[in-house]
Amino acid sequence: MSNGDRPPILATLRLIDGSLVEISKVHEDDAAALVEYADVTAGETDFLTYGPGEFGTSVEAEAAFLRTLDDEQRGLFLTATLEGEIVGIATLARSSRSRIQHVGELGLSVRRALWRRGIGTALATTALAEGRRTGVTRAWLQVRDDNDRAIRLCVRLGFQLEGRRVGVMITNGAEHDLLVMAAKLAEPARKLAQKGHASSPAGTSS
Ligand SMILES: CC(C)(COP(=O)(O)OP(=O)(O)OC[C@H]1O[C@@H](n2cnc3c(N)ncnc32)[C@H](O)[C@@H]1OP(=O)(O)O)[C@@H](O)C(=O)NCCC(=O)NCCS
């Protein structure tokens, strides 16, 4: 990934104004843009685990982290770009330990000005399909219990409530619970078709 070649586009989304959002794996050269993205989005929502100025990762450290993802078994990091600018990200973090490597933790965010255009859903769907392709069979995430939009999105993708972590997030002095939600990922459409089932987009099943 460090040879300057851009990763292939995995999915596209045409917005109502005709502009095109492209979803692809990150490239090591995206490190500076990702740190900036993290700083900007931190000021746009209270639903992330860090606030403005708290991302706390240097460009060098981010680039080093992105290089670890050359190994697909380590996890997945996707960007959604609009006219070359990062407008959303999805991550699927995995352990290097074989007993739990089939599980991926989904992280998701979109620039606030572009909410409610389908970008979050496209990012999550693509991340889950790519995760499934690389061996992830269970996805999970944590979401603040009053983050209704994110919870609805996850439920639509097949995530179910597995638990509640009480008071683990403090925002502006107030304690919040995090919901633990998880989904078993469907078998890839290709394999279903081989078994004689109707093919369908790779995604989740509840
Ligand atoms: C949660 C988050 C990622 C959702 O991103 P998004 O791009 O707005 O997601 P989508 O556009 O796919 O879906 C959101 C809503 O827009 C609707 N929508 C999608 N395309 C639309 C369109 N073209 N026109 C109108 N509405 C549309 C969806 O139906 C959905 O509606 P709902 O909220 O009533 O269920 C975003 O709000 C975010 O970054 N939040 C802060 C960080 C966060 O909460 N991360 C999740 C932690 S698990």
Blueprint (SSEs and pairs):
Blueprint (H helix, E strand, L loop, with lengths): L8 E6 L5 E6 L5 H12 L16 H10 L6 E8 L2 E9 L9 E8 L8 H15 L4 E7 L3 H9 L3 E12 L2 E12 L3 H6 L9 E2 L1
The structure holds coenzyme A (COA).
The site of coenzyme A has 21 residues, from strand 5, helix 3, strand 6 and helix 4.
State the CATH topology of the domain at 9-139: Aminopeptidase
- The value of Rg in angstroms is 17 Å
The H-and-E topology, N to C, reads as: EEHHEEEHEHEEHE
**What is the 3D form?**
globular
Kindly estimate the percentage of residues that lie in beta strands according to DSSP: 25-35%
Task: Note the total helix count.
Answer: 5
Major beta-sheet overview? 9 strands, mixed
Strand segment tally: 9
Q: Report how far apart the termini are.
A: 34 Å
Question: Outline of this structure?
Answer:
The chain has about 210 residues and is an alpha+beta fold. It is built from 5 helices and 9 strands. It has a domain at about 10-140: Gcn5-related N-acetyltransferase (GNAT) (Aminopeptidase).
Folded structure, characterized:
This protein is 25% helix and 34% strand. The protein has a domain at 9-139: Aminopeptidase (3-Layer(aba) Sandwich). The chain is an alpha+beta fold and 206 residues long. α1 (31-42) packs across α2. Bound molecules: coenzyme A (COA). Coenzyme A (COA) is lined by residues 16, 45, 47-48, 108-110, 115-121, 141, 143, 147, 149-150, 152-153. Coenzyme A (COA) binds next to β5, α3, β6 and α4.
